[in-house]
Amino acid sequence: MIKGKKKSKSRNNKNKNKRGKAVGYERYIYKVMKEVNPKLEISSKSMVILNNFMQDMAEKIVETSKSLLKYAGRATLTSMDMHRAVKMELPGQLAKHAMSEGAKAVVRFATHEQADKSKKN
């Protein structure tokens, strides 16, 4: 009896590799909570609920920005598109606060990257 070649497992692994990792916000929720009040604690069920809420909000903002791009007939996402999506999904002051914190995070990232490049040279 002649044995045939075995199928490679790489085909099966391709689909597994395409799946993205689930994003978890637990660490950030915990840090913010401790910053607000170091004595606070949170149950694991509450953490799951907050994590799901954060994932849903991020997904809503992404979907809104995608629909704005489609409506505008463009393929490139700009910072203004993200600003519009955040304003559409978050109410009033919360949107303003989120955008200012996002801008601060981008500035911190850019200065950190610039410092790393200067250290390498």
TrEMBL record:
It comes from the Eukaryota. Residues 1-20 are annotated as: Disordered. GO terms for molecular function: DNA binding; protein heterodimerization activity; structural constituent of chromatin. Pfam families: Histone (PF00125). InterPro entries: H2A/H2B/H3, Histone-fold, Histone_H2B. One of its GO terms (cellular component) is nucleosome. Residues 6-87 form the Core Histone H2A/H2B/H3 domain. Core component of nucleosome. Nucleosomes wrap and compact DNA into chromatin, limiting DNA accessibility to the cellular machineries which require DNA as a template. Histones thereby play a central role in transcription regulation, DNA repair, DNA replication and chromosomal stability. DNA accessibility is regulated via a complex set of post-translational modifications of histones, also called histone code, and nucleosome remodeling. Belongs to the histone H2B family. This is Histone H2B. The lineage of its organism: Eukaryota, Viridiplantae, Streptophyta, Embryophyta, Tracheophyta. The gene is LOC107060327.
